[in-house]
Amino acid sequence: MNTYIKKSDNNDRKINEINQHKSRSLMLFNFKLMQLFIF
To answer: Which residues, in sequence order, are CB contacts of 14 under 8 Å at separation 6+?
Structure first.
């Protein structure tokens, strides 16, 4: 039981990191797009 909880916690952490990375790159992408449209 305990090891299962630890494993899922690890997976959640990985998923969170991946999601953070995605949203960060998405924000950068949107920012570049906006710059293109503004200038």
So the answer is: none
Q: Which two tokens stand for residue 23?
A: 């949203």
- Structure-token pair, residue 9: 């916690």
Per-residue H/E/C for the chain: CHHHHHHHHHHHHHHHHHHHHHHHHHHHHHHHHHHHHHC
Question: Letter for the amino acid at 3?
Answer: T
* CA–CA distance, 1 with 14 (Å, rounded to integer): 20
Position of tokens 């797009």?
A: 33
Question: Does pTM top 0.70 for this prediction?
Answer: no
- Tell me: pLDDT of 14 over 60: yes
